[in-house]
Automatic annotation (TrEMBL):
Keyword Transmembrane carried by entry: yes
Transmembrane segments: 50-80, 137-166
Pfam annotation, one family: DUF2062
Record's protein name: DUF2062 domain-containing protein
Keyword entries, A-Z: Membrane, Transmembrane, Transmembrane helix
Transmembrane helix found in the keyword field: yes
Length: 181
């Protein structure tokens, strides 16, 4: 078992950890998720900077730059003076499970907006690798253009929704109007 996962020796007697290994690992992951959730709620800074960081992260989700989205998000957040942690957290929408449907949707949107590229998803399944490389520029341009459009809509809506929610959250925690009606 890894040293990172908790054992009963690492906790005070008052914390009762599950006995089996799977439950302990699940407990460890749930604690990590809760930690980052609380850390996200307690982010310091202006709500506009946090919302901008989230919007940057969400925008970069829609581009096929596998593995470096978080790095790009932090770089762009630094350049725009936005919250870097919020930008990194915004990229968590995209993961190996959601990448394929997300990029297929981006491709379809790009294909609808750029009708002069005669590509369809069905044709891409039938193409061999050399044929795909021949049509590569049209495919990549269509995918990136669809990602630009979908990412812009998603990031703008993320900015305003998160700005509203962060402002309401902070007002409710300072004795302002309550978060829930």
């Amino acid at each position: 078992m890894s040293k990172d996962f908790p054992t009963n020796k690492n906790y005070p007697k008052s914390v009762n950890l599950p006995k089996n290994r799977v439950s302990r690992e699940l407990h460890w992951w749930l604690r990590r998720i809760r930690y980052f959730y609380i850390r996200f709620l307690r982010l310091q800074g202006k709500p506009q900077k946090i919302a901008l960081g989230l919007a940057i992260g969400v925008f970069l989700n829609f581009f096929p730059v596998f593995g470096v989205q978080m790095i790009f998000a932090v770089i762009f957040a630094s350049l725009l003076k936005a919250n870097k942690f919020a930008a990194a957290a915004g990229t968590w929408v995209s993961n190996p499970i959601t990448d394929v449907p997300l990029f297929l949707f981006n491709f379809q949107v790009g294909r609808l907006l750029l009708p002069w590229f005669d590509l369809s998803v069905d044709q891409l399944y039938l193409l061999s690798y050399p044929e795909l490389m021949e049509s590569g520029l049209a495919f990549i341009f269509t995918l990136f253009f669809g990602g630009l459009v979908v990412g812009s809509v998603a990031s703008i809506s993320t900015y305003f929704l998160s700005l509203y929610l962060i402002t309401r959250w902070r007002n409710s925690s300072k004795g302002g109007k309550p978060f829930r009606r």
